[in-house]
Design a protein that fits this description.
Length: 333
């Protein structure tokens, strides 16, 4: 397992971060998916993964607790948790008590003494740039104060943010309140990449979410029809996303060779700014494969620049809203 220093922190995190969003049923259950997810998490920890993402919104912490509460490595795990506040309907108001409650709840659920990284996010209604950029300066001092109180109690480590868009990301960087950013990042979602140079200048880190574009950038999935029946992405409105996949696969045919999955998993780490890829892992086989793929990745600014050009010139022109929008995926982003 490779590890990278997360810029802006003193954390050395595994380049693979366990994403549990679909690894278990949303309520305690002995179903096949939950059992496979539990084995996947155990395999990841046994294989050196020391970085674990989670959210109360996924409803899967019951499974994680079963693995983590008496795991011999639990004190070595760095947790990153999603922490929305204000939420969509909170009228742009930040509530320090709710912020604390979400941290305390995560400490209990994850059997942890500290949450290493808070992925704080502010949600507005409507959640557009006008609103978001305007609201941030109104609440950021209160967020920082709430974070610092918890940090001084030893309960949290670092404050980062998930800004949704590049305009909000730029506003967040300019506040100097955050150790880094967390965002979607893969060859189909390159919006955050132009900010990487500024992040590096300011010693801020970046964590990549969904390197596989929710599973579309994986082997054999060149069209909607290739998805198994019942798959959560098998919806007609997602067809345009497979056109984007085909554009990526065609542009990087040589680098991809015989595995799109391998290329997509490694892609974020081609940039020095990215410390870890937060990947949805549902089975032991996916964990072992991801670990194998992520070994020995070195920076390739030329490839990252090519992907950015493709995204700017072609991918954004291909029709279709993002497949993995919260509405399509049925999960709050
Ligand atoms: N706003 C947010 O904070 C936010 C939003 C979304 C996600 N997340 C976090 O990011 C994590 C990852 O997001 P994601 O799951 O949407 O996207 P992803 O990591 O791009 O895709 C994960 C999917 O790819 C497939 N897969 C995983 N490993 C594979 C392998 N080795 N070989 C082939 N296929 C593989 C699995 O799908 P199948 O099993 O269906 O093939 C898996 O569900 C989530 O678990 C969650 O922790 C955060």
């Amino acid at each position: 397992m490779d590890y990278r220093r997360l810029a802006g922190t003193d954390l050395d995190v595994s380049v693979l971060c366990f994403g549990p969003m679909r690894s278990a049923a949303r309520t305690p259950s002995a179903d096949d998916r939950s059992q496979a997810g539990e084995r996947a998490l155990r395999t990841a920890l046994d294989s050196g993964v020391n970085f674990v993402h989670s959210s109360y919104e996924y409803g899967v912490r019951w499974m994680m607790n079963g693995v983590l509460r008496d795991h011999p490595k639990r004190h070595d795990i760095h947790h990153v948790i999603k922490l929305p506040g204000p939420d969509w309907k909170d009228g742009n108001r930040f509530d320090a008590a709710k912020f604390r409650m979400r941290v305390e709840e995560a400490l209990t659920d994850l059997a942890a003494e500290r949450i290493a990284v808070l992925q704080w996010m502010w949600r507005t209604d409507p959640n557009d740039d006008d609103n978001r950029v305007k609201v941030l300066p109104m609440i950021v001092d209160d967020v920082t104060a709430a974070f610092e109180t918890l940090r001084d109690e030893g309960k949290v480590g670092f404050l980062s943010t998930f800004p949704y868009t590049s305009a909000a990301a730029k506003a967040a960087i300019d506040t100097d309140a955050f150790s880094g950013l967390i965002g979607f990042y893969n060859p189909i979602e390159m919006e955050m990449q132009p900010l990487f140079a500024e992040l590096a200048e300011k010693n801020m880190g970046f964590l990549c979410i969904r390197p596989l574009y929710q599973g579309i950038l994986t082997d054999g999935r060149d069209s909607l029809d290739a998805l198994p029946d019942g798959h959560h992405l098998k919806k007609p409105e997602n067809a345009p996303e497979f056109a984007k996949r085909r554009a990526v696969v065609s542009a990087f045919a040589e680098e991809i060779g015989d595995s799109t999955t391998r290329f997509a998993l490694r892609f974020p780490l081609l940039s020095e700014s990215v410390a870890s890829v937060i990947t949805g892992l549902n089975t032991e086989a996916q964990v072992r494969h991801a670990i194998d793929c992520l070994s020995g990745v070195t920076p390739r600014p030329d490839l990252t620049a090519r992907a950015l050009r493709l995204w700017q010139q072609d991918l954004v022109r291909l029709d279709g809203r993002m497949v993995c929008s919260p509405v399509a995926a049925g999960v709050a982003a």
